[in-house]
Amino acid sequence: xxxxxxxxxxxxxxxxxxxxxxxxxxxxxxxxxxxxxxxxxxxxxxxxxxxxxxxxxxxxxxxxxxxxxxxxxxxxxxxxxxxxxxxxxxxxxxxxxxxxxxxxxxxxxxxxxxxxxxxxxxxxxxxxxxxxxxxxxxxxxxxxxxxxxxxxxxxxxxxxxxxxxxxxxxxxxxxxxxxxxxxxxxxxxxxxxxxxxxxxxxxxxxxxxxxxxxxxxxxxxxxxxxxxxxxxxxxxxxxxxxxxxxxxxxxxxxxxxxxxxxxxxxxxxxxxxx
Amino acid sequence: xxxxxxxxxxxxxxxxxxxxxxxxxxxxxxxxxxxxxxxxxxxxxxxxxxxxxxxxxxxxxxxxxxxxxxxxxxxxxxxxxxxxxxxxxxxxxxxxxxxxxxxxxxxxxxxxxxxxxxxxxxxxxxxxxxxxxxxxxxxxxxxxxxxxxxxxxxxxxxxxxxxxxxxxxxxxxxxxxxxxxxxxxxxxxxxxxxxxxxxxxxxxxxxxxxxxxxxxxxxxxxxxxxxxxxxxxxxxxxxxxxxxxxxxxxxxxxxxxxxxxxxxxxxxxxxxxx
Lengths: 274, 274
Hints:
CATH architecture of the largest domain in chain A: 2-Layer Sandwich
Oligomer: homodimer
Distance between the termini of chain A: 46 Å
Strand order of the largest sheet of chain A: 7-6-5-9-10
CATH superfamily of the largest domain in chain A: Inositol polyphosphate kinase
Number of helices of chain A: 9
Largest interface: A-B, 30 and 30 residues
CATH class of the largest domain in chain A: Alpha Beta
Largest sheet of chain A: 5 strands, antiparallel
Shape of chain A: globular
Strand content of chain A: 15-25%
CATH topology of the largest domain in chain A: D-amino Acid Aminotransferase, Chain A, domain 1
Order of helices and strands of chain A: EEHEEEHHEEHHHHEEHEEH
Structural class of chain A: alpha+beta
């Protein structure tokens, strides 16, 4: 009953016999453990996080539900492999619009080997992260009565200028006409909108010294149909994902993540202001 | 009438015929223009900043007064050289306690040449910046009835762990007995204390996209005698200094500076809490 997710904007994809995540029809998302120790590192994070009393209850909603691990048939046909069992963020959203935003001007940890850092620095030079403090990893936007989904090339969105990122953030909450920002008040604004949620997350990052979220993404998900009906909270969700490089905070706040988060908040605020 | 400043904790020093800053007896500080284009870059910043209408008036007090440039006899005896004329931050403070805190986990700009970045990365590895988001560049603390000034070696303070930085921040506001934090409420706390000032600065950095303050320091200055008398504002001052590497913000907040500033704020808050 497992199948490749319909709405994936970043990360490895389960298609043409490649290894990637799977979903079932009960709202679960199965993420195969990545190689090179990253999978076990991510599992260790989920295990630590799910039982850490230092994480306040209201912060847990910014993380995917964690249901342990399960051996399932891998998408690449290589047999039974351990998978993380997580909540499926697009479950019961028929037409989800999604942004995957990798947070932090630096996507590597200072204590990593020189060669690895050199490789990352080279990659970073080809994307928005050093300049903006974050980069778009992938975007899809449901353009209701028009062409279905707008889903620009991943490589393209990773290397946008500040002005271009501003345009994508506007288009993400627009109706068919590009950049009318029709849905900005419902999606970005209001007490349950993206800006409020990001500010709540920011308040935690100003205090918490438990984890450093290196190379993590924030997923922004909403459904235009649900938003259009004017329901609150309009189906807006913010989740942190990808914990293969989370480090011990060692008594210091995650200034790299927080700086990038503040930069993203400024961009979202600017859309709401204009 | 010019002489080397008595209370300098970081930067080049005018002693033994070397080039360094000078002060006069009217409260002015003369900073010789640094070579390699850094001096003219810093002058360009002061000129731009002093007339930039985007800088709110209440933020100007976080920057040294700028009185243009003047040709004065250089401290190294090399003749008349152009100097920036700035306010002397220790003027009329008989026994100033001073911290020079270089802000940002990264002290180089992403667009600088590869070789320069490699050199900076190597230097950064030997100091606190990547881990803490800032580093102490220099400290002096007036220990009233004891030994005069406590002034640890610069090289030593640049490479402290989180726990050690916490200890220095406590000692900086303590009476003779180390770390009693007797002056913490007067210096770090209250409406005119360091924490309030840093929070005000932070609010600006969450918004401003005009400048990126690469490799800048925050100077924290107070006078224990003045603080002891219980006057408000207890002579506490916060100033940004060293603008040889300021860059155009290009529509993005200075996430590198802001992240480090938030980390420093967390450290100061922790001293006030315990």
